[in-house]
Amino acid sequence: MGKQNIVKRKPKSAKRSKSAKPKPVHKKRGNVFDAFAKQMFGRLVIIIDFLMSYADVDFIEAIDLSKIRLAPTHYIGQHGDERIVDLVFQCPLKNGGGSLMAVIIFEHQGGNLKEIPQKLHKYISAIWDAEKKEGKKVLSAPYFIILRTGKRPHRGPPPTMADSLPKGCDGKPLGHVPEIKYKVVDLPGWDFRKLVGGPTLRLVMGVLQTMTVGNEENLPEAFLPLREIPDGRQKVELTQELLDFVDKAMKAHNRRLDAAMVSEILKPAFPDEEQAMIKSIFDEKFDAGVAVGEAKGDAKVAGAKAETGRNMLLMFLRARFGRVPKGTEKAIRQMTDPIALESLAAHVGDCASLDEFATALK
Prior knowledge:
By secondary structure, the chain is α/β, with parallel strands linked by helices. Among the domains are: 26-163 and 178-186, no CATH class; 291-361, no CATH class. It is 49% helix and 8% strand. It is built from 15 helices and 5 strands. The chain has a 5-stranded mixed beta sheet. A hairpin with a 6-residue loop joins strand 2 (87-92) and strand 3. Helix 7 runs parallel beside helix 9 (232-251) and helix 12 packs parallel to helix 14 (338-347). The longest helix has 23 residues, at 299-321. It is elongated and about 85 Å long. The N and C termini lie far apart (87 Å).
């Protein structure tokens, strides 16, 4: 009987251990933030602005900014999550004597950075191993920046390898301790006035910090740099990308981005078009379709979509060309097909002039 009980309990126990797996909440959250950081900072315009604003002066003076390139993934190594979430940039020196390798490491969990020194040793070893295999005689010098978006700034000096190694009676580390210098950039998201750089960089960093901390009420302030971006098309595209990230970050915490918050975010940058943008771009994704209604197949819905499509198309044209001739606007106002309007809106960016767009409109 005892044997039978033991045999019966084993499968139950095994089943229970399988179902007791913790939910990957942090992994999901990290993926959302890391994907956004890599997407934004992988753009040369943003990373160059970031380096010029936050890197050391001697580093900026030594490198040729016009030749900075995203380095191949094998510089980080073929295994491990690090090569997925962090970025490496090859920065040739002005004097032609080699390169500096700028490694940007994203820390979104607000940890104490104690694992950073060991990670940096792995990074630079992987970079040098790859360069040796390529036959490079002059290896790249490393330059590490930790971009930290925690709730509180890091306190005290940055951790070193010596902190993890044994020490003698005098308190000094034993052996020959290899130390790698690195710079820590703490995003002061609770005070947006401390953010430096161009409007796009400040916009990205402000939104990243705000969502990391979880202070959604600060989003309208974080989006204010949008007003400084002169290119209307770029402004709209950035808004779409940033709100998409905000939506995903909030969903990771079982919250939703609603129409009221989107309107408050957009109003300063798009004072006359925020409602049209909500209806046409963010309608389904952010539950902002108040005027559209719930009946998707209803004729009234189709009319509302056409109206928002016309408004959106005119907004794109004004942002790109400054003004829209009365004849062109009249032709657009007479259109009723939402799909055709959407197709024309996508075509605006490819047109070199209003005349070219007018040809496509016919």
